[in-house]
Amino acid sequence: MDLYAEEILDHYKHPRHFGHLADPTLTYHDTNPFCGDEINLELKIEDDHVVDVAFTGQGCAISRAAASMMSEEIIGMSLDQLREWDKQNILDLLGIEVGPVRIKCALLPLKALKAAVWGLGEDDTVTG
Amino acid sequence: MTTATLPRFTVAQSTTLDVAAIRADFPILNRHIHDKPLVYLDSAASSQKPQAVLDAMERYYESTHANVHRGVHTLSEEATAQYEAARARVADFIGACCPKEVIWTRNATEAINLVAFSWGRANLRRGDRVLLTEMEHHANLVPWQILAAQTGVDLDFVPIADDGTLILDDLGRLLTPRTRLFAFTAASNVLGTINPVKELTTAAHRAGALVLVDGAQSVPHMPVDVQDLDIDFLAFSGHKMLGPTGIGALWGRRELLNAMPPFMGGGDMIREVHLRESKWNELPWKFEAGTPAIAEAVGFGAAVDYLNTIGMDAIRQHEQEITAYAMHRLSEVEGLKILGPDAGQRGGLVSFVQGDVHPHDIAGVLDSLGIAIRAGHHCAQPLHERYGIPASARASFYIYTTEAEIDLLVAGLHKVVEFFSL
Question: Using CB atoms, which residue from A34, A62, A102 is nearest to B376?
């Protein structure tokens, strides 16, 4: 039951940065149509650095824990640093083996983050 | 890892089937998953295969394979004979008048697409209507959406009640004078609901509409007789009824199929080909362009033989018993809510949600215990939207499912409660 390590369950049950920002600079909404997972990611950017982050949505323990852990990690980071992020950053945060099926759950928050910082999906993205 | 040892749990007595003997025919049921005996509760997605089906396909490739309908040599003749004999057995299995009413397709999805593309484009005009239901699998929604976008046909939907049954009060109004087809599932792949096919068909015919039945979840599990049901088209898949993947069938009334243009063009579906025009082959080959799935058809034939040996009435009876037992045991689990009607009105599957736990997490915990269930929206997203849930977990049963396996499922779901502190 490695998938449900203590730390992951803790982030799932008590997600950090869950909610909304008063004045987000970037927001991005994404879904995983395979399982119905959904994330709405909000970032507050000052001087090209993340100063605050919040997320809402529904998802399994893996996707929610990944969003929670990622949110804690990225505060203080520059947009250029985040553009360098890849799936290994998320897997390192989770610290578990994620199989080919659940990898989509684990990477949904990253997908939203990358789209937000690269300014993709103009319909969904508000650039302030 | 595959091991030769039998599952550790004992097989409970079914009153109708010798489940222990049946299980011995399925090599995969000896597998262990994460060092636990496999408990396979995902047959509604795809069933496992008995040795007889695996042997039939291997035998075909080892001794008979050649292309069908082409060669004059012995192998081609034998391959053609086996391929067509399988069609005859499948036709007989669903009560078709004759083998030529059975068109091989890849699966039920392709069968429905065939009707939408061929019959739909030839017969439907802007302003015509196709009636569907809110409980359809994407396979019986999306082909009609594509047709609607291209032809201006309008789609209507029979709504579903909270208990998972169709609301038929307004059926007379929904079957408008412009409704040309009523396409519905015989049994829901999420709710388990078995729909009153005859009643719906009578109403449709009275309104002048044809009937297409999605039989993907009914043909494998209960007796289905197309003539008794008086329907016009039936779609079903081999892999959900002990057969291989890559083979399914469309059954249609001869006169309808004869009047329909081909679905795909190519070899085998033609009688004469000239540079600028061709003449179509007769039924069923008119709809079977290119080299077909020959070994898969042979395997499908063997699957139907296996089901006939057990008997579809006995299979239905066994699934009703297992489903009633499962619903009774699942109701003990804290926070668990079952979707759909009571056991008497459903096929062999139970979908559920468990508190706020995401179905993927339920399936993840169960997988670690060797138990395979489906989690997600089961290709029926509108249905989940109807009930205001993003996804559900589904346990589905077949001829090899035992009460002992249901007990293991329930024990696993208690673990889910423990893990996620429901």
Answer: A34
**CATH class for the domain made up of B19-37+312-419:** alpha beta
CA A103 to CA B264: how far, in whole Å? Answer: 37
Cα distance from A31 to chain B (closest Cα, Å)?
A: 11
Residue A42 burial (C-beta neighbours within 10 Å; 0-12, 13-18, 19+): buried
pTM: 0.90
Number of C-beta neighbours around residue B210 at 10 A: 22
Write the DSSP string, B356-418: TB-HHHHHHHHHHTTEE-EEE-TT-HHHHHHTT-S-EEEEE--TT--HHHHHHHHHHHHHHHH
B98 as an active site residue: the answer is no
> Which of B304, B379, B408, B410 is an active site residue?
B379
Residue range B296-332, pLDDT digits in tens: 999 999 999 999 999 999 999 999 999 999 999 999 9
Mutate which: B358, B368, B378, B384, vs A, most A CBs within 10 A: B358
Per-residue pLDDT at B1:
39
Assess contact for B111 and B249: CB atoms under 8 A.
yes
Considering only the top CATH level, what class is B54-309?
Answer: alpha beta
Query: Under an 8 A CB cutoff, do B358 and A3 touch?
Result: no
Place of tokens 């036709």: B91
Nearest CA in chain A to B360: A60
**Rounded CA separation B378/B389 (Å):** 13
pLDDT of residue A125: 40
Contact state of B390 with A58 under an 8 Å Cβ cutoff: yes
* Mean pLDDT of each 10-residue bin along chain A, 128 residues long: 81 95 94 82 94 93 94 95 93 89 90 87 42
Of A9, A13, A105, the CB nearest to B360: A105
Domains of chain A: 2-118 (3.90.1010.10)
Closest CA of chain A from B110, distance in Å:
21
